[in-house]
Amino acid sequence: MDHTDAANSEFPLYPRELSWLSFNGRVLQEAADERNPPIERLRFLGIYSNNMDEFFRVRVADVKRRILLKKYQQSEQEDAEELMQEIQQRVLQLGQRFNAIYLDIQLELRKHNIELIDNFKLTELQSGWVRSYFRDEVLKHISPMILSGDEVSLPKALEDNTTYLMVEMTGNGKPEYAIVQVPTNELSRFIELPLHLNTRKKNGHYRRQILLLDDVIVHCIADLFAGFFEFDHIQAYSLKLTRDAEYNISDTLDQSLLDKMSKGIRQRLKSEPVRLVYDAAMPEQMLKVLSKQLGTSSTDSLIPGSRYRNFKDFISFPNIGHQSTEFPPMPPLKSPDFEQYATSFDAIRAGDILLHYPYHNFGYFTEWVRQASFDPKVTHIKMTMYRVAKHSRVIHSLLDAVRNGKKVTVVVELKARFDEENNINWARKMTEAGIQVVFGLTTLKIHSKLCLISRMEKGKLMHYGHIGTGNFNEKTARIYTDMSLFTCHQEITAEVGQVFEFIEYSYRPYQFNHLIVSPTWSRPRLMQLIQREIDFAVSGRKAEIFLKVNNLVDQQIVDLLYRASQAGVKIRMIIRGMCSLVPGLPGKSQNIRVISVLDRFLEHSRIYVFHNGGETDVYLSSADWMTRNIDQRVEVGVPIYDVRLKQQVLDTLDIQWRDNVKARIIDAKQSNAYVKRGNKRSIRSQQQIYEYLARQQGQLINTETE
Predict the structure, then answer these.
(1) Which helix (H) or strand (E) holds 398?
(2) Quick check: is 391 catalytic?
(3) CB 543 within 8 A of CB 611
(4) Is residue 59 part of a domain?
(5) Mean pLDDT for the stretch of residues 294-303
(6) Do the annotations mark residue 387 as ligand-binding?
(7) Quick one: 203 and 259 in the same domain?
(8) Least confident of 113-117, 245-249, 575-579, 643-647
(9) Is residue 634 part of a domain?
(10) Please, which residues have CB within 8 angstroms of residue 540's CB and are 6 or more apart in sequence?
(11) pLDDT (0 to 100) of residue 417
(12) Can you give the residue range of the structural domain that contains 340?
């Protein structure tokens, strides 16, 4: 785990859990932002909900363990309990804001002829259609859990982050209770009612109406239980349980890591609950029965919410209206560096190539691997796999490469949180096909984004490498901002080869002169780079650090940044998520400014810039500045040596720093105030970066600008 403990630091440290909630508050700001199209605002609510699920599964679960574990001293236990109370208070505040935004978005959607309705608003004709739909499409996927007696153990039976309905049936006798799972794995959550049944019109057109699957079941709940139970009244309310995402995996030597991880996933479904979210309208007696069945304790988070659970499904909310209700498209840009050559290898051999996702097409990477799969000169392909798409063209090309006699090695990270099952499935398929699958080090996650292709050219083995900030995932490459460096710099590619060797043979000695490699080599290198700027400042020379990461919570690094500020180093940071450093404090961090940018794409690239006495060093990396990334994972940062590409990275960072539309100031309270525009022209950095790259490469674009 990361350790950011203010008690062990001479400098103030903002609690990482509260900083994370501040980040998710920025996501909620995007949902509230009326400059965003209404469908996109609704999807931001889905992103917020998905983030909150992970927050409870990981961050809150950790705080809960700190409260429960006996080995912690009393003072630390009290700190954890105080933190838990603060978390619960802020979560409730954000939840209230969430509900208000959802109502506002519903009103906005109505203006666009789209209406979200519940079962209480159904006309008689619509009700008949819904009952038929329930009988024909839904009923076969439902098997209620009856709570009378001791047959059902609810804590074991409920799956993590799944939408359920708690049902109460009352009559002359004792109330009966049941749990019904909403089958969103089998059916769409969003059901559009047939147009001819919609009676409300606007401007001469039928309003498009959507009913949630939850409401279909609630509307027909009596039909589900009729004939099995006698009742005069029946009601149902939603709930969702969130469990601890940590593992409880045996270290027995006779069990393969693959089997252990499969077992770990099963154990997660039965692990400790850390949150119960329920419909606030649920009657008190029903809630008491539910709490008793679950055995919730004082450290569990019982959170009342709105009518619906699992709002994360709204990430995929369908646009059934006009295209203006979504963001305008940004067609992926072509890369002249690739386009002007016959093969990807010719292009990379001509000079380093840098791609910016999602502005550039991820297809250049998949095409490079596809070409390697049949190129007679290619002998070996090595790749790390952290998160890949469920239908991965990259892996299909690797399977083709094996069939073509290439040697293929894939390092699979089985502990990629929440992607374990997908990775296990791919690992089995690749192993069966003859790919050498390496599971790496059991104590370290392999988080680096590496691909190394060896090619025999004129009797000599040449190596082509990829080092990036993002995963080899076709889906996320369209929504995450990342950078990929393609190079045949033989010293760099040799060091990439050493990283693969380290993963298999960690006991051997290695030396890295170009790459920043975690663990072991990363912390001293980063400390050295920061200290060098401190030395420049102390000697009266210009000293600057420009950092872009997702999270900054490593205490040792944060403390050194404070000292750098005290020495006079000017520090700018763009941090998407958690930031433990408190900027702008007189005498401590007055030379540090921090902003956070949230917009249509998820900022994901990590970039480190050090002024270095005027000979600026620029690194791309897979690593955030967190203890886990520096000391407990295999991460790789790569220097950008090409002058043109280095300037390109610096220009994009500068554009983002000048954002005055989607940038927020990270201050001592992390209150998420927007950067003030004043009388300056509007700069929405993601749009501006797209246009900058298009201009640089001579491509015409036709998109709406802010």
Answers:
(1) helix 393-403
(2) no
(3) yes
(4) no
(5) 67
(6) yes
(7) yes
(8) 245-249
(9) yes
(10) none
(11) 54
(12) 336-504
